[in-house]
Amino acid sequence: MAILYTQLLKPSDLQILACSFSVHGRVLSSEKKILLELRNIIQKMPDRVQNVLYDYKYGDIAIFYIYIINDVIYALITDKNDDAESVMKYINRIYSLFTKFCVERGSKPYTSFEEVLRAQSDIFNSKSDVFETEEELKMAKDVCIQSLDKVFKRGEKIDNLLNLADRLKVAAQSLQRNTRRMYYQNLLEQYSLYIVFALIILLVFYFFIR
Fold first, then answer.
1. What's the sign of the alpha-carbon dihedral 40, 43, 47, 49?
2. In degrees rounded to 5, what are phi and psi of residue 95?
3. Cα torsion angle, 185, 190, 192, 198, sign
């Protein structure tokens, strides 16, 4: 999940105190429509209950998150990967830093907090990218392990097939020898009388000639 845009507003008049696009969200900086849609959703919220995380899907492009605490609206635009737990961690971090900023800001305008928003969203996204990369690597590792397991199992099946093929080959050779032997035996049985008569005739001729 990536934080694309962060906006802090006053609930009373929806004045924007500070806002910033992250590096991931710079592509949205020229998309006025999505920012108008976020503002319309905030305006139309019937009950702005504090300490409740609201989420609204913006088609298949993004998700709006809105959270109100201590009379400040924290509005976010994230990518379409829904992760409310991570969003709350980010909001709590921004809330803590903004509270400290308000105590120490003196005459500084609220807009000077935008550098903090930009930095924090980029830090969050970089950690999220690392986490997602680790998850992808873990998934790839699991897939490799499963593939290797299948290969090993397939290897066992191949070995079984090879052993079966060897046994079939031996059986075929034995059958071929037996068939050949039976063939000759049948020939011998079929022509044995003729062979005996032929031998007798040969013997008779032999004795007469002698």
1. positive
2. -60, -45
3. negative
